[in-house]
Design goal:
Number of domains: 3
Keywords: Membrane, Transmembrane, Transmembrane helix
Helix content: over 70%
Structural class: mainly alpha
Protein name: Glycosyltransferase RgtA/B/C/D-like domain-containing protein
Number of strands: 0
Organism: Neolewinella agarilytica
Length: 446
């Protein structure tokens, strides 16, 4: 196999494989999704599952081939990292692998792509099809993982939210790690819910596997992964603390809270912080230094480059203090690009994506306030804690990302990893409200 094109034009965007083999691969993955619908007993649900999951993946196949062959949008070079790794696999004994241009964090992405590249050939289209397939499989995994616990309505709402998420469709046309991370983040959340609400220990395998995969791809997400676990354990300990009578038990619970939740949480945050500072070349820098000196340098390098552009205009960015920068960048993680910065088609995609997220945030808050806070619906303590743990984790992640992510394109991509938190929490609550209203139609209409 000739890999000479890699050496002359890295990263090349010109390499295209055999169209029919790539099309066969796409159709094979589509058939797999349709076959999964056979595990659903209800014929009507089978149809809707195939229509939603299969239909959107078919759309991804279409836009990938159209974009790769007709250049509707600029082709991104990132997909070639996996192709470089294919070379790495065939030349493992080489001491200098492509002058260090292949990052170890792409190893997992290479591993999940390898069987498809081996079977259907080395081509950019195949890498992108795998990315599109993995974003679809995130929704499918959540559907089957939550269906037995919450019922069909919840499962379908989660399927719809995760499948129709604009970034999951948009980044199918890129070769980045984010679609693969999207799957494993969803796997981690679903496994957590199953472990917390059932007596089965089988979800532990999903938790461990997803943690290892995400840690190897983007270790700075390490702290986010453990945040909902920490919230759930801490709330449980606080509940026990309130109900216990003796001072000795209260002291034991306080020590237990520190050892089991706070200390591991601080360690996870410290490790994640270390990975972030190492990644941006700012080892030992304080958060304030990062958001001032290092983030400012990065901002100056990236301002005006690419479709993402800056979150805050340069004249404002350099005139405001660090805490204002952080606040605006955290806000920009949700609302991006700001309306006056929508100047291209990719930015329109990002704006639609932002609207999608804002709708979920507002919807979750309104539904919780109207139905849970007022006591109109009693979902049980465990389920309510799950709703809130995922919701709070999303906002915690947004706040942390606001320190360093100052490019709207990066924010659009990076928030894809944390979207499952808000999507699943909103879907769970919305399904609960819909079921309540269906059961109480007569009372509500009276």
């Amino acid at each position: 196999m000739d890999f000479s094109f890699f050496y002359t034009d890295f990263p090349s965007t010109a390499y295209t494989g055999d169209f029919f083999r790539s099309l066969l691969m796409g159709l094979s993955l589509l058939l797999f999704i349709f076959l999964l619908s056979l595990f659903i007993k209800d014929r009507k649900q089978q149809f809707y599952f195939a229509l939603i999951a299969g239909g959107i993946f078919a759309f991804k196949i279409l836009i990938i081939f159209l974009n790769e062959h007709y250049r509707i949008l600029p082709r991104k070079p990132a997909g070639n990292f996996v192709l470089w790794f294919y070379w790495y696999a065939e030349n493992y004994s080489a001491t200098r692998i492509l002058e260090g241009r292949v990052q170890p964090t792409f190893l997992v992405q290479f591993l999940v792509n390898y069987p498809f590249i081996y079977l259907f050939g080395i081509a950019r289209e195949n890498v992108l099809l795998v990315n599109g397939f993995f974003t679809s499989m995130a929704a499918v995994y959540a559907f089957f993982g939550l269906k037995n616990i919450f019922g069909s309505l919840t499962a379908f709402l989660v399927l719809i939210f995760l499948t129709f998420y604009p970034a999951a469709i948009n980044f199918s046309m890129f070769g980045l790690r984010d679609p693969v991370i999207y799957l494993f983040m969803t796997m981690n959340i679903v496994s957590l819910i199953r472990l917390y609400l059932t007596k089965s220990y089988l979800p532990l395998f999903g938790i461990v596997f997803s943690v290892l995969a995400i840690f190897s791809m983007r270790p700075e997400l390490f702290a986010f992964l453990f945040a909902p676990y920490g919230f759930l354990i801490l709330w449980g300990l606080i509940s026990y603390y309130k109900n216990t009578k003796t001072i000795n038990n209260k002291l034991l619970l306080m020590v237990g809270s520190f050892v089991v939740v706070i200390l591991p949480g601080l360690m996870a945050a410290y490790l994640a912080y270390g990975f972030v500072t190492a990644n941006i070349g700012a080892v030992g820098a304080s958060p304030v230094d990062i958001v001032t000196t290092y983030a400012s340098n990065r901002y100056d390098r990236e301002a005006g480059i690419g479709d993402g552009s800056h979150i805050v205009p340069p004249n404002i960015y350099h005139a405001i203090p660090w805490y204002a920068r952080w606040g605006l960048q955290a806000l920009g993680m949700i609302i991006l690009p700001f309306p006056w910065l929508i100047t291209s088609v990719p930015k329109v995609f990002a704006a639609v994506d932002s609207f999608f997220i804002i709708l979920m945030i507002v919807g979750f808050w309104w539904l919780r306030k109207k139905y849970l806070v007022t006591g109109l619906i009693n979902v049980g303590l465990k389920r309510e804690r799950i709703f809130m743990a995922l919701f709070i984790t999303f906002f915690t992640s947004v706040g942390v990302m606001g320190f360093i992510v100052n490019n709207a394109g990066n924010a659009f991509r990076m928030r894809m990893a944390i979207f499952p938190y808000i999507a699943i929490s909103t879907a769970l609550l919305l399904a609960t409200v819909i079921e309540y209203r269906q059961k109480n139609k007569n009372k509500l209409s009276a």
